[in-house]
């Protein structure tokens, strides 16, 4: 299991021990939910031992199924047994958990027979602090990479979620494909986000081409830390993911990253550095909504 404590070079003026430490967990989910839970729990416990206050898990941390029918069969409501296990894990470890993409049977399950891709934030008591349901569904066909038709089993979420205060800073919740829509990240930043998180399961073609450059762009333009926990490796015979989980600071520097396989990386969040950067480069004061409109609608 690889882990590498890392912090922004800008943090040198501070006592690094005083800065909140976050852990980014990289896993290879399969259709076996209990196997996946054991792998995630091992990384979360390691993050707690290393002193993290918040651990981030990737999209589809619960499972990656072979087809839409299996996805629907394996899905659960938020009040089901799997979230109950994560509630206990957060409480046991005493840290917050970003559960980056849960296959959720919502209140409309009986009517729609479709689920939501739901990012769940738990506090250190195991309470659900926030839920964000993925608003941009990945329906794409990239040559050389298996087609994705997320909408065949999933409903788009109705709204963005207001940034949430955590021990590491104010977090704006998103999921994977959302990173291709800068309006979302800018709306979250204007609503007070200091950390943007993009739990993901990027493919083997789009990953090398777009993963790092998109994450760094979102960090620079929103002047936020970006935390991106990723799926890696082969999930089953039909699907593989790129990996390379990372943390990017508001200057666009990658301050922590995972390699190819399962493991975790660590980074310290320096909000004083973030505030200084925003003061030195006040792009949000220079925006021209009179020319290109204001950002986003109401956040819930």
From TrEMBL:
Gene3D superfamilies: Carbon-nitrogen hydrolase. It comes from the Eukaryota. Signal peptide: none annotated. Its EC number is 3.5.1.128. Residues 19-271 form the CN hydrolase domain. Coiled coil: none annotated. GO terms for molecular function: deaminated glutathione amidase activity. The keyword Hydrolase applies. Pfam families: CN_hydrolase (PF00795). Belongs to the carbon-nitrogen hydrolase superfamily. NIT1/NIT2 family. This is Deaminated glutathione amidase.
